[in-house]
């Protein structure tokens, strides 16, 4: 009796097993490219990322743009909630996986997280580089949609809690907008004052990232995933550092309590 083999259905990856070990791979092709025979030693990491998600090799300008975006997003810094979550896990002695999962969970949402990038990229799909459409979209306050995500309280890609665009986000926008692969980024840089006026909020790093990922041809779903991935290195490094420093040197934020629980118990 012949037992039928289960097959994984994927257009991304094709591999052959070793003749004497079905669990070991002899060769691997990613969208037709021989990863270990041709790409290893020649291609860059961001080119592999692009190939995995887009199914084709990037043009040099596209690879350079993704490389610059990856550098800008690599470490959001300890002020970022996702990095702080990873530091909390690290100082508590959690495993490496738990530290990264903490960063992913906190950095996944609609308040400066990957889901905000998703919605900002949907705006690019809807509005393109039509300023009138953007103004209408940014002034809308859509109805709540049932789902796992809380309702957004500000236009995606903008910072509702700031008075002006953060310096690092602005530096990133100016640099990326000069790329030969930039179309939406260059338009965004030129129309930023009008867009910020319509949104009643300054442009955020999520908005810059969304424009860059849209310029590179990624879908909102792909952009959301990449934004999560590209921000993990900083979270990992800070978690390891905080684990070594220990809880006594962890930067717990002070809270100004309106009521003192100990005083209430005493009375």
Structure report:
This protein has a three-stranded antiparallel sheet with strand order 1-2-3. With 267 residues, the protein is mainly α. A hairpin with a 2-residue loop joins β2 (21-30) and β3 (33-34). The termini are far apart. Mean pLDDT is 90; it is low at 142-146. It has two domains: 13-57, no CATH class; 69-141 and 148-243, no CATH class. α4 packs antiparallel against α5. It has 13 helices and three strands, in the order βββααααααααααααα. The protein is globular, with a radius of gyration of 22 Å. It has helices at residues 35-39, 45-54, 60-73, 81-91, 96-106, 114-127, 131-139, 167-177, 184-199, 205-215, 220-230, 232-245, 261-266; strands spanning 13-18, 21-30, 33-34.
Care to give the gist of this entry?
This protein is mainly α and 267 residues long. The protein has helices at residues 35-39, 45-54, 60-73, 81-91, 96-106, 114-127, 131-139, 167-177, 184-199, 205-215, 220-230, 232-245, 261-266; strands at 13-18, 21-30, 33-34.
Structural class comes to mainly alpha
Taken together, the total number of domains comes to: 2
- By oligomeric state, this entry counts as single chain
Order of helices and strands: EEEHHHHHHHHHHHHH
* Count of distinct strands: 3
Helix run count:
13
Rg (C-alpha, Å):
22 Å
3D shape: globular
Mean pLDDT across all amino acids: 90
Intertermini distance: 80 Å
Low-confidence residue ranges: 142-146
The spatial strand order of the largest sheet comes to 1-2-3
Instruction: Tell me what portion of residues adopts beta-strand conformation.
Output: 5-15%
Give the % helix. 40-55%
The largest sheet, given as strand count, sense and whether it forms a barrel, is: 3 strands, antiparallel
């Amino acid at each position: 009796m012949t037992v039928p083999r289960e097959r994984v259905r994927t257009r991304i990856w094709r591999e052959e097993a070793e003749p004497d070990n079905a669990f070991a791979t002899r060769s691997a092709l990613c969208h037709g490219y021989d990863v270990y025979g041709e790409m290893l030693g020649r291609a860059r990491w961001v080119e592999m990322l692009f190939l995995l998600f887009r199914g084709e090799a990037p043009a040099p300008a596209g690879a350079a743009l993704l490389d610059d975006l990856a550098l800008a997003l690599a470490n959001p810094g300890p002020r970022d909630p996702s990095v702080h979550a990873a530091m909390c896990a690290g100082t508590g002695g959690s495993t490496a996986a738990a530290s990264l999962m903490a960063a992913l969970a906190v950095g996944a949402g609609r308040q400066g997280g990957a889901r905000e990038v998703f919605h900002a990229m949907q705006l690019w799909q809807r509005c393109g580089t039509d300023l009138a459409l953007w103004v209408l979209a940014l002034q809308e306050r859509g109805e709540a949609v049932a789902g796992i995500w809380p309702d957004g309280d500000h236009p995606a890609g903008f910072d509702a809690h700031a008075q002006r665009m953060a310096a690092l986000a602005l530096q990133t926008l100016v640099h990326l907008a000069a790329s030969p692969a930039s179309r939406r980024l260059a338009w965004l840089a030129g129309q930023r004052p009008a867009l910020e006026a319509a949104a009643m909020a300054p442009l955020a790093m999520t908005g810059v990232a969304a424009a860059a990922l849209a310029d590179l041809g990624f879908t909102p779903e792909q952009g959301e995933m990449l934004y999560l991935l590209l921000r993990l290195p900083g979270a990992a490094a800070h978690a390891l550092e905080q684990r070594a420093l220990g809880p006594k040197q962890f930067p717990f934020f002070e809270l100004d309590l309106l009521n003192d629980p100990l005083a209430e118990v005493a009375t």
